[in-house]
Design brief:
The complex is a heterodimer of chains A (about 725) and B (about 150).
Chain A: H1 10-21, H2 33-39, E1 48-50, E2 56-59, H3 69-81, E3 88-91, H4 95-100, H5 120-142, E4 149-152, E5 155-158, E6 164-166, H6 167-175, E7 223-229, E8 236-240, E9 251-257, E10 261-266, H7 269-278, E11 281-284, H8 293-304, E12 310-315, H9 318-323, E13 327-335, E14 347-352, E15 357-361, H10 366-377, E16 384-388, H11 397-400, H12 403-412, E17 420-423, H13 426-431, E18 439-447, E19 453-462, H14 465-469, E20 501-508, H15 522-541, H16 545-552, H17 557-570, E21 581-589, E22 592-602, E23 608-618, H18 625-644, E24 650-651, E25 654-655, E26 673-678, H19 696-708
Helix pairs in contact in A: 1-2, 3-5, 5-6, 10-12, 15-19
Chain B: E1 2-6, E2 9-13, H1 21-29, E3 47-50, E4 53-56, E5 70-72, H2 84-91, H3 101-114, H4 120-126, H5 136-147
Parallel strand pairs in B: 1-5
Antiparallel strand pairs in B: 1-2, 3-4, 3-5
Helix pairs in contact in B: 2-5
Classes of the chains: A alpha+beta (about 725), B alpha+beta (about 150).
Protein name (chain A): Aldehyde dehydrogenase
GO molecular function (chain A): oxidoreductase activity
Organism (chain A): Alsobacter metallidurans
């Protein structure tokens, strides 16, 4: 990964103005100042730069946060480019550059498992167009038709004469050619770079300490800041006594940050934090000072039976079906707040002057980070930019809010011209999350005399992420994302079961705790509620959970295929090892079909050991199978961490958990073996980073029920609920 | 001024005695490969070796490092990423975001130095570093490879 730091955007702005006025393809992403920009290697197009030494630089609009998107997108572009993979590197354009070029790189947002599936088309076309231009440039030089030339591994050969030239030699000429419109793309079956289990491009620096993360940012003269924002949601900063800490070592300034926070700026972060810890602060506790998890739960419970609810999916007459059922099954479930707990706490470096503002940070959406920076900087957007640094984890936190960018810019405004790096302590990070929303569900199922599911009412109650983060995304008050994976149609997440009488509705209840997108988002609880309850229904009907599901998935062949695949590989229907029990789950989300079979053992003391996971995914196409496997493995670590441990609770308006000692997460000793089945069926592009997380918790809870006869309906799993001695 | 021996080089640093070694390494010595994750020795991202012993540097006041003790950070694990664990990490494409991996590697290196052929249970008992991306199974596989053991 090459990241270019530039102390000034002036060269860039001048260069882009010249570009807009003249050449369409001659634009260079600037290095340091105008001189460097002039010596920058030529662009073939916005996506591809080839240096004279034949190094290929592929521009990456989406961001790498561990999920492998950087390597996958480079594979897609390199495939169409016919590049020599050993010469491929990558770089990030900035959102300012994207704006200046009329968003030539499209959307920067890296969330919703969209990194590859929503940009693969134009990234591949970018690679294909660049290849055609390079071939044309060589053909022009030789005075032969381009159709007589072949490109392979970065070398263009004229078939008739055997003459050949490398990309680096013709790149500059290629960049002056007109770009082909809508270049044809390869059939994925002909892929040689994409689709292969290639090694990631970004590993070497992560093995020797040289990878620069946002928290590692250094600039000449940089100061460091530590912040405390009001820990009570809705509270404000009343006062602080700066005089008490101003003479502490290294301290430069104590500053108010907006209405709610105070920060200490010092030469080092540790000195800033030490002074902050010693700083007397008085809070205006605001309207939520007595809010507790118990009160939030009551609010949600009321929603379970409320008259008014937004309808997400409906068929037939569910009330009549329940009234006429041979057997009615009811159950209430809940899913608590979760914290992202990225390993790298939130941080950002900002430099502000009355003329311009620059930010360096780890973000899943640099364009949103720029919008936040612009607002905080009080400057026009063309005077601001955000430089992307490597993320120490994202999981949705770094797309849900750029509160840390806002704070960093506000702090930097107190020190014009001096770069200031703001780092949140782990405690600050945990108290100011954008938490997985809290929800409950009341499930009512109607079985006929043969044990068929003839009616299902799924009443969701709880928090809307969009209502907090993007109210403009609501549809007449309804948050469509609350029905993720439960839709009647579409490409994102379809409810797979055929149930003649169906009602899925949502009573929105929004406690004043900021929610966010947390890996899997609303699919997590939706899959948990539905898939656990399907097992309860199968049990009530006296049927095998696999057969019960199969009977309802006849018209959902892709849902069925992944379910069958895990059942077969896990040995469903054959005896498990002594003391080991199995559970199943399937779901569709972010365009992909996923299923899992969990094998667990529950000890007499109630402790749960998840031994083995068999997981299948059909994401349509697979760009790098070993990285898809890595994402599946990781999704189970994240999902099982939530199932086994994850719970954020509220007391007196504030989060009770402040660090990993009170917010435990899964470690190696608890990690099961994960066997992956990657079964792309083609014809569509689904996501990879999130989907298998949906089936982690329900498969395990179903296995626990099989092991103990106890149905746990509240997350996380609590040992005391399963204790037999 | 404090004198520290870091990766074989004596460094003089200006820090208060209660400053955690982690922040001295990151801010005064300028070695940022060692990461801050929790500040309470719970996550292991800050793991370094002190005379060969894996130590969570975020909770160790720099004044407790004794004169002449050798501090080894990820930058000093090998001169050219040639340590058997670094090679195994590359072979298994272990890192995702990578933020915890300096600590994972340093913990694993101390483990293998003390126990060259660990069992899976011994690996899990020693490797308590948190990885939120969930690379645990690849971490274990890479340790096995470096140790020349099969799981």
């Amino acid at each position: 990964m090459t990241v270019h730091f530039k102390p000034s955007r002036r060269g860039f702005l001048a260069g882009s103005a010249a570009t807009a006025a003249g050449l369409t393809l001659g634009f260079h992403v600037p290095l340091v100042g105008e001189a460097a920009a002039q010596s920058a290697p030529p662009e073939v197009n916005a996506w591809v730069v080839v240096k004279p030494d034949d190094t290929v630089v592929i521009r990456i609009a989406r961001v790498e946060m561990g999920q492998g998107t950087l390597t996958g997108l480079a594979q897609l572009a390199a495939e169409e480019l016919e590049a020599d993979w050993s010469k491929v590197t990558t770089e990030y354009p900035t959102p300012g550059q994207n704006l200046a070029r009329k968003r030539v790189w499209g959307n920067f947002s890296t969330a919703g498992s969209r990194g590859i599936r929503e940009s693969q088309d134009y990234v591949r076309k970018g690679g294909a167009a660049a290849r055609m231009m390079l071939v044309q440039a060589a053909a022009n030089e030789w005075g032969v038709p381009a159709g007589e030339c072949r490109a392979q591994k970065g070398v263009i050969t004229h078939v008739g004469s055997g003459r050949s030239v490398t990309y680096g030699k013709v790149a500059e000429a290629a960049g002056r050619l007109e770009a082909p419109k809508d270049p044809p793309l390869k059939d994925p079956k002909d892929w040689t770079i994409a689709g292969q289990p290639l090694k990631r491009l970004d590993t070497a620096g992560k093995l020797n300490g040289s990878q620069v993360y946002s928290i590692d940012m250094k600039l000449p003269g940089m100061l460091n800041a530590a912040i405390r924002d009001c820990p009570i949601f809705g509270g404000k900063l009343k006062s602080f006594d700066a005089a008490k800490v101003e003479s502490m070592p290294g301290v430069r300034k104590v500053v108010r940050v907006g209405d709610t926070g105070v920060a200490v700026i010092a030469d080092t972060w540790w000195r800033a934090k030490s002074a902050l810890d010693a700083l007397p602060v008085v809070w205006d506790e605001g309207p939520n000072a007595k809010l507790s998890s118990a009160a939030i739960a009551e609010t949600l419970k009321e929603g379970l039976t409320a008259e008014q609810a937004f309808v997400g999916n409906q068929a037939g007459d569910v009330k009549a079906a329940i009234a006429g059922a041979a057997k009615v099954v009811e159950a209430t479930y809940s899913f608590p707040y979760q914290h992202h707990a990225t390993m790298e706490p939130m941080n950002a470096t900002a430099r502000w002057t009355p003329e311009q503002c620059e930010v360096w940070t780890a973000t899943q959406n640099a364009e949103a980070a720029l919008a936040t920076a612009v607002q905080a900087a009080g400057l026009p957007i063309e005077k601001c930019d955000v430089h992307r640094l490597h993320l120490g984890g994202g999981f949705g936190r770094r797309s849900s809010s750029h509160d840390f960018v806002r704070q960093a810019v506000l702090i930097a405004r107190e020190m014009p011209g001096t770069p200031v790096k703001l780092i949140w302590s782990r405690e600050e990070d945990m108290l100011h999350g954008r938490y997985h929303p809290i929800t409950m569900a009341k499930m009512t199922g109607a079985l006929d005399a043969s044990g068929n599911l003839v009616g299902l009412h799924m009443r969701l109650a709880g928090q809307s992420i969009l209502a907090s983060i993007n109210p403009a995304g609501l549809q007449n008050g309804k948050d469509p994302a609350t029905f993720q994976g439960l839709n009647s149609g579409g490409a994102e997440g379809v409810f797979g079961y055929a149930v003649p009488n169906l009602l899925i509705d949502h009573a929105m209840r929004n406690p004043p705790i900021p929610p966010g997108f947390w890996r899997g988002v609303n699919n997590n609880q939706n899959a948990l509620y539905l898939e656990c309850f399907v097992d309860e229904l199968a049990s009530a009907a006296g049927k095998d959970p696999l057969e019960f599901r199969r009977a309802m998935l006849g018209k959902s062949p892709k849902h069925l295929a992944v379910l069958n695949a895990v059942a077969e590989k896990a040995g469903w229907g054959t005896p498990a090892p002594a003391g080991v029990h199995r559970g199943l789950s399937q779901h569709m989300g972010y365009g992909s079909y996923v299923a899992a079979c969990a094998e667990v053992r529950v000890e007499a003391d109630g402790s749960v050991k998840v031994l083995r996971i068999v997981a299948a995914t059909d994401p349509g196409h697979v760009v790098n199978p070993q990285q898809v496997a890595a994402q599946i493995e990781g999704s189970f670590a994240y999902g099982l961490s939530a199932a086994l441990h994850g719970e954020i609770t509220i007391l007196d308006g504030k989060v009770e958990q402040e660090n990993f000692d009170t917010y435990p997460v899964i470690r190696m000793a608890e990690m099961p073996r994960v066997e992956t089945i990657i079964m792309p069926s083609g014809g569509f592009w689904g996501g990879v980073g999130e989907p298998t997380i949906f089936v982690a918790a329900p498969a395990v809870l179903n296995a626990i029920a099989a092991a103990t006869g106890k149905r746990l309906r509240n997350m996380p799993i609590k040992t005391e609920d399963l204790r037999r001695v | 001024m404090l004198r520290l021996t870091v990766n074989g080089t004596v460094r003089e640093v200006d820090a208060e005695p209660d400053t955690p070694l982690l922040w001295v390494l990151r801010e005064q010595v300028g070695l940022t490969g060692t990461k801050y994750g929790c500040g309470v020795a719970a996550c292991g991202a800050c793991t370094v070796h002190i005379d060969g012993v894996a130590t969570r540097s975020c909770s160790l006041p720099v004044s407790e490092v004794k004169a002449g003790q050798n501090i080894l950070t990820i930058e000093g694990l090998s001169p050219d990423s040639s340590h058997a664990l670094q090679k195994a990490w590359l072979d298994h494409d272990v890192p995702q975001c990578g933020y915890c991996q300096s600590g994972q590697l340093m913990a694993a290196a101390a483990l293998l130095a003390a126990n060259p052929k660990p069992t899976d249970d011994e690996i899990a008992a020693e490797m308590t570093n948190i990885c939120r991306c969930g690379t645990y199974n690849r971490v274990r596989a890479a340790i096995r490879q470096a140790a020349g053991v099969t799981g």
